[in-house]
Automatic annotation (TrEMBL):
PANTHER family: LONG-CHAIN-FATTY-ACID--COA LIGASE, NONRIBOSOMAL PEPTIDE SYNTHASE PES1 (EUROFUNG)-RELATED. InterPro entries: AMP-binding_CS, AMP-dep_synth/lig_dom, ANL_N_sf, ATP-dep_AMP-bd_enzyme. Residues 17-384 form the AMP-dependent synthetase/ligase domain. The lineage of its organism: Bacteria, Bacillati, Actinomycetota, Actinomycetes, Kitasatosporales. It holds the Pfam family AMP-binding. This is AMP-binding protein. It comes from Streptomyces sodiiphilus. SUPFAM superfamilies: Acetyl-CoA synthetase-like (SSF56801). It comes from the Bacteria.
Amino acid sequence: MFLQRIRNKGIRLGTLFDRAAARHPGNMVVLDHDLDVAPELGRRLALPEVAELVAELASRLWAAGVRTGERIVVHKTDGFDISLMACAAARIGAVPVLLSPKLDGETVVELVRRAQQPYLVTDEDKLTNSLPADVFEAAKKVLLTSGTFEGATPLASYAGAARVDPITMPPDHPTLITHTSGTTGTPKLAVHTGHTFQARYRPQATVVSVVRSREPIAIHVSFVHSRMFTAMPIAILQGHPLIILKDDEPESVAKLFSQVPPGLIEAHPNTFLRWEVLAKDPRGPLSNVKYFSSTFDAIHPRTVHTLLGASRRRLPLFAQAYGQSEVGPIAARTYTRKRGAEADGRCVGSPFHGMTNVRVVSRDGRPPSKSSPGFIEVRSDGRIVTYLGEHERWEKQVNDGWWRMGDVGYRTKWGCLHLLDREVDEIPGVESTLEIEDKLFARIEDLIEVIIISGPDGRPVPVVSTRDDKPLDERVWQDAVVGLPPMADPVRWKLEDLPQTATTKIKRLELARLLAAGSNGNGDMS
C-alpha cells in the first residue's frame, strides 16, 4: 500500500476538469444524451466547456446558500450532469451525496434523513413521480436541475451568479458519499475522502496507462458510483477523449461507436453481456477496442470470449478487477483470445503489488479451498472511512485493518484469488453458484442472464432470461445441466423485470423473496 501513499494529495474533484482542460484543451467529451442542466451545449463538449459548466454550477450552488462542509444530496433523472454536479459541489468544499435514480422514493427519503438536513438537488420528474412529500422536511432546501415544482427552486434561477474561487479541502476530509448496492437491504452511505479516492486511482491508472495516447475511452458506469470518479479522471488527465454513455441499448451504442471508435471500454458486466450482439454487427462497433475493463461484479467467460473475438486489434485484452464500493479495486487479471468460453471464471486475479493485499480466513479450521472456502478479507488505502450514520456497521467489517468483503473463496498455490459466492448467497451442497452460472452461459447461447438462488424448499432454482425473451428449449436445458448439481426446473423472467441495483447487479435476496411469494416472471420453460 506504500505506492498508494506516495505524494497522495487527494483527488481534487472540484478542479478536475480545469486541470484536464489546461493539459489537453482540444480533447472532447462525447455524450449519448443531452445534459438536463445545459441542454444547449449539445452532445460534443470540449474540456474547457465542461470546466466552465462545472464552475457555473458551483457558483449557482453557492448563490443558493450551499457552504463549505455542507452536504448536497443529488438524486435526479439519469445523466452525466449527476457526476458534474458532484464536481461542482466539491469545487466549493461541499460534500456531494449521490443517490441512484433507480432507488425508490422511500429509500431516498431515508438516506436524505441520514445525511442530516442536506441540500437536495433533484428535478420535476422525481418530485412528481417517485419522491414522497416528506422529502421536503428531510432536506434543508430543494433545488431543481430541470422543470418546476412548488416549494423547490430551479438552479437556473441562479444563472450568471458571481464566480466563486475553488476551495481545496484537506485530503482527509470527506470528498464524496456514495451508496452501496443495496443487494442485501437498504443501501449504506459510504464516505470517501480525497486521500482514499487518490489511493484507488493508482492501481486503475496503471491499466489505462497502456492505452495508446489520444485513443477515446468509453465509459458506461452508473453516474453515482465511486468507479465513475476514478475512471473519468484517469481518462481525461491522461489525455484521452471521453465517451460517456447513459444508454446501453445495443443499436444506439453501435451507432455511436461506429462514429467514434473507442480504444478502451469500461462498463458493468451485465452491460458487456448485453453487448455480445455487437460482435456480429457488420459496422464493427467493437473492432477498434484494444482493452475491455470491468470492475463491478463477476463477468462470465462467454462474454469475455465473445467481446475479444469482436476486436480486430492485435492481442486485445480484457481486464477484470475484483473490488467493492467500500474499498475500490483489490485484485485483477487479464484475459486474451486464447481463453475459451468455458474457462475458469472464478479466478479474479492477484492483488496490485505494493498497493493492495488479500487474505482468506478459514471458517472451519481447515485451509481454505474450493470445497471449504474462507472469508475474503482485503487491505487498501482506498477503503472508505465510515458508513454515514452507521459507524458501528463499518467497524464490524474491519479486523486489525483487514476489511471483510462479504465473499467466500480461496487462493491457489500461485496466489490467484478464486471468488465462489457472496456469503449470503451460498446454498448448502453447492460449491459455487457463480461457477454453475458460468457453465450455463457457455452452454446455452440464448441466455442473457441466469441467477441460481435458493428456493423455498432449499433447492437451487435457476432464474433465466433469454435473448428476445425466447422460450427455453427443454432438450437444450437438459443437455446443459449434465454434470451440474441437481436443481429445480428453471423459471423464466424478462431481464427488465429482475430486481437490479444501480450497477445492474441482480438483487438475489429480493429475487428469492419474490419467488417465495409466488411471483414467477413470465413462466417456466414452456
